[in-house]
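Q: what does this look like with acetyl coenzyme *A bound?
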Amino acid sequence: MPEPAEVQRGLQDVVALESRICFIDGRQGRLIYQGYDIRDLAARSTFEEVAYLLWYGRLPSAAQLSDLRARFGALRVLPGPLVQRIDQMPADVHPMDLLRTSVSALALFEPDETKPGASSIGGAQRLTAVLPSILGQFHRRRKGLPALRARPDISQAAYLVYALLDREPTELETRAVDVALILHADHELNASTFAARVTASTLSDLYSAVTSAVGTLKGPLHGGANERVMELLDEIGSVPRTEQVVRDKLVRHERIMGFGHRVYKVEDPRATILREWARKLGEAKGDLHYYELLRALESVVHREKGLYPNVDLYSGAVYSLLGVPPDLFTPIFAASRVAGWTAHVLEEYQDLRLIRPTAKYVGAVDLPYVPVGERN
Ligand code: ACO
């Protein structure tokens, strides 16, 4: 039997599969979806166009886009029994736990969508349309807001704000959310997408794959970092305190959330774009508190550790300026990344090979078996 190759901890730099969906140039700080630079998509596109692009490999025509918008609108309604189950969940659970369990439960009511294979495109559209409804159903109840309506007439970005905050966003706010959704929609083989592809590679169904992905995104080293960034900003409190708080954390070997990245060796291009949106929204609302703290944080962390910001550094500030509570930041990330997860699952089904790496065994062998009554 051949000796296993050297262990790559965290599978760093391991090329696990071929994909046409997303390309990251970590040295140049470039992110490409199906051939299109993220900067062009963030400047000119919408989340609906980007979801179509990820699934079909090309930008939609005007008719195809209007068809997808209509489908999203029609697919926003939750099955009655799932609404009842969401309403029975404890109001103090984390929304990511609620989302994971609800995606899994949704599959029980949609058996036709859960067959693995090319037909899963229906499930991809359903899950992308419905995630804001799941979050809205839960969040509105815990906040005592009026009941959710399906609102088939509005964009996914506007629907997300309506579902969570029960208000019509301004044009600037809608665009800010749309850009955030575009920027989070895919990111090559990040941990949650890899989890989705591993699940799909066993020929399990799309809903199971997305359930795996939601559970993986939740962790603070992945999607959960944006919530922790806002906790850090509140701990810092004012620009002059930034240096001391960061130094104290680094002395204790704590990680500074929103900085560093496995793939980018320069600034994450998504952070560059979101920084501008945090400034624009802050100026529009006459509140640059978070923006100024984040600029100070960037400068101290870069000087002390040479680390660059990642996407999670500025997304929390953007959502906070809209009035979104911090525990919904990662769920909003999921409501965008679901487009990428499902695109990857569809790709996996087209060229399926069970993902099953191997481990270098470092445990004992040939231990003498001691019967239970003779053990210490
Ligand atoms: N704060 C302090 N030190 C850091 C940070 C950070 N944010 N990021 C990396 N480092 C240091 C590590 O301590 C380590 O130093 P050492 O060699 O002296 O021990 C070195 O940089 C390399 O770190 P690794 O963890 O090996 O690098 P890895 O590629 O595994 O880390 C990760 C990537 C997990 C994102 C890391 O940078 C991190 O923990 N960042 C904070 C959490 C975060 O912002 N996550 C969001 C990522 S983007 C996303 O998932 C959407």
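Residues 10, 221-223, 225, 255-262, 305, 307, 310-312 surround acetyl coenzyme *A (CB under 6 Å). The CA atoms of residues 132 and 160 lie 5 Å apart.
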